[in-house]
Amino acid sequence: MEHGSFTNDSFASFTLAEEDHTLANAVRFMLNQELVLLLLSFNPFLPRVTFAGYSIPHPSLECVNVRVQTTGDPAREVLKDACQELMLMNRHVRSVFDKAVSEFKVEQARLAAEEEKKKKAEEDELKKQRDLLASMDIESD
């Protein structure tokens, strides 16, 4: 739900139902990225966001209020762009994670195969030694 001005769409508050700090903090982070990059001189353009923050009205309520103020762009569009950037970042993190998991599984399978091969070689060596001892003719008194 959007709570904004009818005369100026460059600032608005949005209520996100059934959400908590997890999503709200990530959205706030994405909204403030342009401002941080400008302060660090990585971004030669003026940021679109002048303020982004969130609050949770009450701990027992499952909603978050996100406040966005921009330099002129519609706050709704800026929030939408930040959410899309967040989804792209999440996709990237997911793909890196999935790749790391598959590489880990391959490595674990390789290590298990090596361990099995080593165990088999030890068993074969032990069997060979037993057969050698059995074939020796040891006389008892």
Question: What does this molecule look like?
Answer:
It is a single chain. By secondary structure, this protein is of the alpha+beta class. It contains two helices and four strands, in the order ββαββα. It has helices at residues 21-39, 75-135, and strands at 2-4, 11-17, 49-55, 63-70. β3 and β4 (63-70) form a beta hairpin. The chain is rod-shaped. The N and C termini lie far apart (99 Å).
Strand percentage: 15-25%
- Stretches where pLDDT falls below 50 for ≥5 residues? none
So how many helices?
2
The coarse overall form would be: rod-shaped
Provide the residue-averaged pLDDT. Answer: 87
Q: N-to-C SSE series? A: EEHEEH
- Placed side by side, the strands forming the largest sheet appear as 1-2-4-3
Concise account of the structure shown:
The protein is of the alpha+beta class and 141 residues long.
Tags for this entry?
141 residues; alpha+beta; 4-stranded antiparallel sheet; 2 helices
In terms of topology, how is this protein built?
Blueprint: E1 2-4, E2 11-17, H1 21-39, E3 49-55, E4 63-70, H2 75-135
Antiparallel strand pairs: 1-2, 2-4, 3-4
